[in-house]
Amino acid sequence: PSDAEAHARARVREGDDSLEVILVEASADDKWQWRILDSIEPCGGSELPMDSEPNKQQVEALVRSLVKLPAVFSRKDLFERVIKELNFRVEGWQGNHLIGGQLVLPLQDGHAVLAGKNLRYTREQGLEEL
């Protein structure tokens, strides 16, 4: 999908302006080494391929990892910065209609910084701004 299509797909379809992202856990050593969140069964913690399409079970886990970003990230003054910071294009994933073109938010130990704001993900609370 084109950048415009990716932006459009990221918008939640019910008409509100929130963005949704796929959450992955990034390696502390290499921000381009991603794995499925530990809490997503049955393949939580498995390493994701970056140069080929994930297997069916991993794709299903990635779809279950889709979350809405807090509403603040849809504000006009932050939106373009968010899109720019989340502009990870994993070539191997683009052929899959479920995950190709989706925005990805890599976490480290459940945390991320996006557009200067600190975020935390827990299974209990979801994705929240700190």
Can you walk through the features of this model?
The chain has 130 residues and is of the alpha+beta class. Helices cover 21% and strands 23% of the residues. The strands form 2 sheets. Strands 1, 2, 3 and 4 form a 4-stranded mixed β-sheet that branches. A 3-stranded antiparallel β-sheet has the order 5-6-7, with no helix packed on it.
- Class derived from helix and strand content: alpha+beta
How many DSSP E strands? Answer: 7
Shape: globular
Specify the oligomeric state.
single chain
Main β sheet profile:
4 strands, mixed
Mean pLDDT: 86
Intertermini distance: 32 Å
CA-based gyration radius: 14 Å
Alpha plus pi helix count: 3
**Contiguous uncertain segments of 5+ residues:** 10-14
* Helical coverage, percent range: 10-25%
Pattern of helices and strands: HEEHEHEEEE
**Approximate strand percentage:** 15-25%
Quick summary:
By secondary structure, the protein is of the alpha+beta class.
Strand-helix topology:
Elements: H1 3-10, E1 20-26, E2 34-35, H2 56-64, E3 66-68, H3 76-85, E4 104-107, E5 111-114, E6 117-122, E7 126-129
Quickly list its features:
21% helix, 130 residues, 3 helices, four-stranded mixed beta sheet, alpha+beta, three-stranded antiparallel beta sheet
